[in-house]
Specification:
Four Helix Bundle (Hemerythrin (Met), subunit A); 146 residues
Length: 146
C-alpha cells in the first residue's frame, strides 16, 4: 500500500479559488484511500461529486477567459470523470480493488496535473484578475532552507 495523499504547500498554485478546490480534492482522495470496504462506495461517490463540480468550475474558467490550451485540459478532466464512472460501476458490483486502484491512480496523477495544466491556468486566472503572476510562499520549502 502506498502513502495516503496529503495536502502540502508544493500543491499551492497561488490562485486561492483553485487551491481551495485542490485542498478538498486531496482530502477526498485520502478519504477513499483510507476507507473501509463498507465505506468505499460512499467515499467514491463523494469524490465523484466533488470532481464533477471541481472540473466544471475549472472548465468554465477556461471557456470564459478563452484560456489557450483549454481543449487539452478539458479532455483530461473528461477522461478522469469517465474513469470514475466506470470504476464506480465496478465497485457497485463488488470489485473494491478497482476503487482502491483508482484512488491511488488519482493520487499519482494529481501532482503532475497540478504542476503543468493547473499551474498554467492559475497563472492565467491570476493575471487576468490582478494583472500579474501569483506569488506563492511555500512554508515547507522555506523551512528546509533554514
Amino acid at each position: 500500500m502506498q502513502d495516503t495523499l496529503k495536502w502540502t504547500d508544493k500543491f499551492a498554485l497561488g490562485y486561492e479559488p483553485m487551491d481551495d478546490l485542490h485542498r478538498e480534492f486531496v482530502e477526498l482522495v485520502a478519504a477513499v484511500q483510507g476507507a473501509s470496504d463498507a465505506e468505499l462506495p460512499h467515499s467514491l461517490a463523494a469524490l465523484a461529486d466533488h470532481l464533477s463540480a471541481h472540473f466544471e468550475v475549472e472548465n468554465r474558467w477556461m471557456r470564459e477567459t478563452e484560456f489557450p490550451p483549454r481543449d487539452c485540459h478539458i479532455d483530461e478532466h473528461n477522461a478522469v470523470l469517465a474513469s470514475m464512472a466506470q470504476v464506480r460501476e465496478l465497485v457497485a458490483e463488488g470489485d473494491l480493488a478497482n476503487g482502491r486502484r483508482l484512488a491511488q491512480a488519482l493520487a499519482d496523477w494529481f501532482p503532475g496535473h497540478a504542476d503543468y495544466l493547473d499551474s498554467a491556468l492559475s497563472h492565467w486566472m491570476f493575471k487576468r484578475r490582478f494583472g500579474g503572476k501569483p506569488v506563492v510562499i511555500r512554508r515547507e520549502a522555506a523551512g528546509r532552507a533554514a
